[in-house]
């Protein structure tokens, strides 16, 4: 007679890596990684699409560089931690639902649904995030919008999961000493072996997460570039600074009679490149910090936007719309908030590291402002419009 294979039960999985203590600790670490990733990602979204109540400071000048670096690197760290957490809990998949107890069945179903949503949404965020840093988009949806929307799904599902599992996690984290004493009294040496195995698994998980961060952190931490073999950007690039979009890709054609337009309610002015070069120049060391997590600093020389507006007789202390020669790009224009528009370190740059801007860096002039995402540092500037 052929016997049916027995469906495994959770008690069949006795490895210490499946213990509630391991699961609780991994969940705590993963919650920290997801929390950092979500919080800094939310900041990045608000900087690019600011609601009326939101303001973002210009100081320190590296602030966005730090927050977006934390965003991407915490996402990198979350990948091995999520895989380790799934390994520790997968025996729970074999728990049979209490079909004869409607209340417990409902709770069981709610838990399973929250876990399914959490795992699927988390993998979506992490996988598409990795594709984004590689600037590869093999899908039909707009990445920033989808990434932002699914992030809220992750947070909602995670909060629901924490609420359901909090008693179990608290018990696991608060009772290991009593458990060790009880096991030691009945089976000498068994608890020591289990504790050693648990520590080894946790250390391995933390170590893999640390190695993943170290291997990629050079994209935004200059002194780690030599030990970050998986960094997706280096310090190389046109004029020593990487770029995401070339002049050829943007189809930029600078007209021979190019002039910068400055427009404000009730007035306008225009300047040639020679006029801009003849104005008092300022040099500042500022980073290009891109949403993909990479960043690089350079010395930029140009005219402060606030000084340019004053010279033209335009009002200051208002938002400024910056428009590029690019006509069909998603970021062909950006809006400088008032706090950035009046900052003397916000430059209409003509030179980088002592050289005239190359076409790929925004010739004839580009915007460079402190603590701003790279996508908002508009290149090939043609027009400044002071808004009401």
What layout of secondary structure does this protein have?
Elements: H1 20-48, H2 63-89, H3 102-133, H4 143-174, H5 176-186, H6 190-216, E1 259-264, E2 267-272, H7 273-278, E3 282-289, E4 295-304, H8 305-312, E5 320-324, E6 333-336, H9 338-341, E7 347-352, E8 355-356, E9 366-368, E10 381-386
Parallel strand pairs: 1-10
Antiparallel strand pairs: 1-2, 3-4, 4-7, 5-6, 5-10, 7-8, 7-9
Helix pairs in contact: 1-2, 1-4, 1-6, 2-3, 2-6, 3-4
Transmembrane segments: 26-48, 68-88, 109-134, 146-164, 200-224
InterPro entries: Di-haem_cyt_TM, Mopterin_OxRdtase_euk, OxRdtase_Mopterin-bd_dom, OxRdtase_Mopterin-bd_sf
Keywords: Membrane, Transmembrane, Transmembrane helix
Range of helix content: 40-55%
* Strand-pairing-aware structural class: alpha+beta
Query: How many beta-strand runs?
Result: 10
Low-confidence stretches: none
**Radius of gyration based on Cα positions:** 27 Å
**With helices defined by DSSP (H or I, 4 residues minimum), what is the helix count?**
9
Order of helices and strands: HHHHHHEEHEEHEEHEEEE
Which outline best applies?
elongated
Lateral arrangement of strands in the main beta sheet:
2-1-10-5-6
Strand content: 5-15%
State the domain count: 2
How far is it from the N-terminal to the C-terminal residue, by CA? 85 Å
Mean pLDDT, as a whole number? 89
Q: Major sheet: size, sense and barrel closure?
A: 5 strands, mixed
Keywords: Membrane, Transmembrane, Transmembrane helix
Protein name: Oxidoreductase molybdopterin-binding domain-containing protein
InterPro entries: Di-haem_cyt_TM, Mopterin_OxRdtase_euk, OxRdtase_Mopterin-bd_dom, OxRdtase_Mopterin-bd_sf
Organism: Micromonospora saelicesensis
């Amino acid at each position: 007679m052929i016997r049916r294979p027995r469906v495994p039960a959770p008690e069949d999985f006795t490895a210490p890596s499946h213990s509630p203590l391991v699961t609780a600790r991994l969940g705590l670490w993963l919650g920290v990684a997801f929390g950092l990733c979500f919080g800094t990602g939310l900041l990045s979204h608000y900087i690019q699409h600011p609601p009326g109540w939101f303001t973002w400071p210009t100081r320190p000048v590296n602030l966005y560089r730090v927050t977006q670096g934390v965003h991407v690197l915490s996402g990198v760290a979350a990948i091995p931690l999520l895989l380790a957490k799934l390994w520790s809990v997968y025996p729970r998949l074999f728990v049979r639902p209490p079909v004869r107890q409607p209340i417990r069945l409902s709770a069981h179903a709610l838990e399973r649904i929250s876990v399914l949503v959490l795992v699927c949404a988390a993998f979506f965020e992490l996988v598409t995030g990795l594709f984004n840093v590689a600037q590869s988009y093999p899908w039909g949806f707009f990445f920033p919008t989808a990434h932002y929307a699914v992030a809220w799904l992750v947070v909602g599902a995670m909060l629901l999961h924490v609420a359901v599992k909090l008693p179990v996690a608290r018990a696991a984290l608060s009772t290991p000493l009593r458990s060790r004493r009880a096991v030691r009294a009945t089976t000498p040496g068994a608890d020591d072996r289990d504790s050693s195995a648990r520590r080894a698994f946790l250390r391995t998980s933390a170590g893999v997460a640390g190695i993943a961060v170290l291997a990629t952190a050079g994209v935004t931490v200059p002194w780690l570039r030599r030990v970050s073999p998986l960094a997706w950007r280096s310090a190389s690039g046109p004029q020593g600074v990487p770029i995401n979009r070339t002049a050829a890709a943007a189809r930029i054609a600078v007209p021979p009679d190019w002039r910068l337009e400055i427009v404000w309610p009730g007035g306008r002015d225009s300047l040639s490149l020679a006029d801009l070069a003849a104005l008092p120049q300022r040099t500042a060391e500022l980073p290009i910090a891109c949403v993909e997590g990479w960043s690089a600093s350079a010395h930029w020389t140009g005219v402060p936007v606030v000084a340019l507006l004053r010279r033209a007789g335009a009002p200051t202390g208002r938002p400024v719309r910056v428009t590029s020669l690019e006509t069909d790009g998603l970021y062909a224009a950006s809006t400088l908030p008032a706090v950035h528009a009046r900052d003397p370190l916000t430059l209409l740059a003509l030179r980088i590291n002592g050289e005239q801007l190359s076409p790929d860096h925004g010739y004839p002039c580009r915007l460079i402002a402190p603590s701003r995402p790279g996508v908002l540092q508009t290149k090939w500037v043609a027009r400044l419009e002071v808004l009401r």
